[in-house]
Amino acid sequence: MKQLRRENGRQVGYDVLLWIVLCAAICAMGPLPFADPAGFGTVTAPRLALGTVAVLVGRRRPLAALVLLLPLGPWSFSEGFATVDLTWLLPRRDVKILPLLATSPFVVWYAYLTGRRLSGLRPALVAFCLIAAVGVAMVLDSGGDLALWVSMITALAGTYVVPYLLGLLRRRLLLQRRQARLSAEAQARLRERARIAREMHDSLGHDLALIAVRAAGLELSAGLHEAQVKAAGELRLAAADATERLRQIIGLLRDDSDAPPLAPVHEDVAELVRRAGDSGMPITLDLVPGPVPELAHAVVQEGLTNAAKHAPGAAVEVSVRADRVVVRNGPARSRPIARPGGLGLAGLRERVRLAGGTLGAGPVGGGFELAVDLPRQGEEHPRRSGGQRAS
User: Fold this and answer.
1) How far apart are CA 122 and CA 131, in angstroms?
2) 76-115 tens-digit pLDDT
3) DSSP secondary-structure letter at 3?
4) Looking at CB atoms within 10 Å, which of 12, 165, 252, 341 has the fewest?
5) Can you list the alpha helix ranges (DSSP code H) found in 59-118?
């Protein structure tokens, strides 16, 4: 009974209309009930029963409907879509091409639905072999004339094979469209994950690093009780552990094939440096008057975060010009609070590359330097980024 269910009233209405038209076509092909009651009962009535069952199961099982309508197929070779003269090949002139009956459109419809909805090829191949066998039997029963073979082959091709192939093509196109839509949705999810990962790294990672710097400063301050020094050390370790867990989460969210977002954080470089200095980081800023590059905030934030994590207590120098941003820190005064190998510098390198600039990062004078060269507005900069270390 599950195969007979319809999802909504519209499907019921369509199928009822299809059944009425099919019954009318079947009645037009056979004896009328009032003119020949016996012929109607032996010929038309069984056909009506087959047509009724075909409509009932055809929506979910179009191949079954196609087999049920096999007796109503194009097996009468006296009428056709066209009549051609084949005297150059056959002794007959009136060879029917693509025989058509009143029920042929319904057979064509279910052949199309078979290709459109049936996923496996083997059941359709078996059914078409059966249909071909019926056509061969009809030709042999009619004498086996070569003209009949031409009519039968064109009937099989036009009524069964071509509609099935059109349905199969339609199903493949819809499948490709669905796969393209799913791929676009997956890419959108990956971009959103990359955006979340970037925001987490830029904001939470930086703030956690500054918390660890404050805790390290308290730990080294004079005049604190032993319990207070211990509490500051535990706070520093907790911040380091939180930074490490954040890095792991970012690794799960970030997609390497997706370029990081290019929108800068809404905070100027001076405010960022001031906030880092308030946290206890010894830092100086050399901000040359003039336009500030859009990526300056991201570069400075990455450099300060790296310095806070990998060189706690080190003096940091920040230099910002219209075409160059440099963040340099001296040697670390205490042990690092995070392990190397993060994704922050890799993401920044990609952003710099997309902006047409170059990135250099590496040890300098016992410390570490992050330098980014960017093209001025309106200039081309064909170089690509480099660097060795990731935060």
Assistant:
1) 14
2) 877 777 777 766 666 666 777 888 888 999 999 999 999 9
3) G
4) 252
5) 62-68, 104-117
